[in-house]
C-alpha cells in the first residue's frame, strides 16, 4: 500500500510530505515526528503541520513516521528514499528497551516494544510483520518470548512465532482459541524471570496484563497511558470493553510496584524523572479517576 496523492488532506502544509484520507488517527506519526505531524481537530486525523527541511533530522524522523504508519497514509511527492528510516527500527528508548515502529492496522496502530536481554529477548505485543523488522530483530538476538498484553494488540503474532520460534504468553481470559504456548490465570502477579513480572490488570479487557521490567519499565497495553494535552496519566472509560470498576481497581494495584516509565500500546509514553515522581503522577490519577 502507498499513500494516495489525490486523497491528500487539504490541511497538510504545502510541500513534499502529506497525509491522505485513510489516516485512522493512531497517533504514531505524531509521536515519531512531532515537528512534522499534528492532529487536525476538525477532521480527527493527522496532518503535516510543518514540512521538514531536506537532509534535516526532522526529515529523518518524518521518514520514520512513513515506515511506522499502519495504514500507509503518509507519502511524499516526489518520492523520498526511506532506507535509513527502515533501518532505524527497533529504536532504542532507554537501556535495553526498544520501540518497534512498524505499527499494524490489525491492532489499530498500537505500539509494540522489544526488550533485549542476555537471558532471551522479549517482544511486548506484536508489530507488523515486515522483513526489514525481522532482520533487525534477528540482529539484536531474535525473540525468545512474546507477551501479549490483551486481545486487541496481537496483530501478526503468528508470523513472529514462526520466524523466531518464541513462546507466546497471554492471560487465559483473553487468549480464547489463539495458539498461545503459555496461558496465565488468576489475579496474582506472575514472575517470568528475576527482572520480569506479569501483572494482571483486568478492566479494558478481562485478561489485560501489564509487564514490569527491572522495576523501571511498565508496559501497560491499553490500561494506562500519558495524556499529552492534559499532561497526566489517563485511562479511557469509552474504550473499556470489560469492566470500568475492575480497571480502576487494577490502577490502584499498581501502587504496589516501583517504575519510572509507562509504555502503552495506545496513548503517549511517559518517563517520570524518578520513581517517586511516577508514584505522585499515579496517585493523582487514582484520586481523579476514582472520583468520576
Summarize the entry for a quick read.
With 292 residues, this protein is of the alpha+beta class. It has helices at 28-32, 57-68, 83-87, 131-139, 157-164, 172-175, 244-253, 275-290; strands spanning 17-19, 37-40, 45-48, 74-76, 91-94, 97-99, 113-115, 122-124, 145-147, 167-171, 182-184, 190-193, 196-200, 209-213, 217-221, 225-227, 232-234, 261-264, 270-271. The N and C termini lie far apart (42 Å).
Would you tell me the overall average pLDDT? 97
> What is the chain-wise order of helices and strands?
EHEEHEHEEEEHEHEHEEEEEEEHEEH
Instruction: Give the class-level CATH name of the largest domain.
Output: Alpha Beta
CATH-defined architecture of the largest domain: 4-Layer Sandwich
- Given the helix and strand composition, which structural class is it? alpha+beta
**Ends distance:** 42 Å
Strand content: 15-25%
The overall strand count is: 19
Q: Structurally, how many domains make up the residues?
A: 2
Count of helical regions: 8
The radius of gyration computed from the alpha-carbon positions, rounded to a whole number of angstroms, is 19 Å
The gross shape turns out to be globular
CATH H level of the largest domain: which superfamily?
A: Ribonuclease Z/Hydroxyacylglutathione hydrolase-like
Low-confidence stretches: none
Largest sheet: 7 strands, mixed
Helix content: 10-25%
Q: Would you tell me which CATH topology of the largest domain applies?
A: Metallo-beta-lactamase, Chain A
Lateral arrangement of strands in the main beta sheet: 5-6-7-8-9-10-11
Amino acid at each position: 500500500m502507498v499513500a494516495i496523492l489525490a486523497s491528500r488532506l487539504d490541511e497538510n502544509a504545502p510541500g513534499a510530505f502529506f497525509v491522505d484520507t485513510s489516516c485512522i488517527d493512531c497517533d504514531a506519526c505524531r509521536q515519531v515526528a512531532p515537528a512534522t505531524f499534528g492532529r487536525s481537530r476538525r477532521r480527527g486525523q493527522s496532518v503535516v503541520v510543518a514540512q521538514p527541511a531536506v537532509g534535516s533530522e526532522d526529515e529523518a524522523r518524518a521518514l520514520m513516521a512513513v515506515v511506522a504508519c499502519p495504514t500507509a497514509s503518509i507519502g511524499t511527492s516526489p518520492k523520498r528514499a526511506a532506507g535509513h528510516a527502515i533501518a532505524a527500527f527497533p529504536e532504542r528508548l532507554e537501556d535495553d528497551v526498544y520501540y518497534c515502529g512498524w505499527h499494524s492496522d490489525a491492532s489499530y496502530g498500537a505500539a509494540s516494544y522489544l526488550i533485549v536481554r542476555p537471558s532471551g529477548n522479549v517482544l511486548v505485543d506484536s508489530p507488523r510483520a515486515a522483513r526489514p523488522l525481522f532482520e533487525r530483530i534477528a540482529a539484536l538476538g531474535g525473540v525468545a518470548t512474546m507477551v501479549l498484553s490483551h486481545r486487541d494488540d496481537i496483530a501478526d503474532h503468528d508470523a513472529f512465532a514462526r520466524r523466531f520460534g518464541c513462546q507466546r504468553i497471554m492471560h487465559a481470559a483473553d487468549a480464547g482459541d489463539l495458539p498461545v504456548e503459555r496461558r496465565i490465570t488468576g489475579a496474582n502477579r506472575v514472575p517470568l524471570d528475576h527482572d520480569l513480572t506479569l501483572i494482571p490488570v483486568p478492566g479494558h479487557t478481562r485478561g489485560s496484563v501489564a509487564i514490569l521490567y527491572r522495576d523501571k519499565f511498565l508496559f501497560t497495553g491499553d490500561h494506562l497511558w500519558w495524556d499529552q494535552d492534559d499532561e497526566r496519566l489517563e485511562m479511557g472509560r469509552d474504550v473499556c470493553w470489560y469492566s470500568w470498576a475492575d480497571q480502576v481497581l487494577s490502577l490502584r494495584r499498581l501502587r504496589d510496584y516501583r517504575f519510572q516509565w509507562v509504555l502503552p500500546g495506545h496513548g503517549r509514553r511517559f518517563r517520570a524523572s524518578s520513581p517517586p515522581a511516577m508514584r505522585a503522577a499515579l496517585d493523582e490519577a487514582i484520586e481523579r479517576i476514582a472520583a468520576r
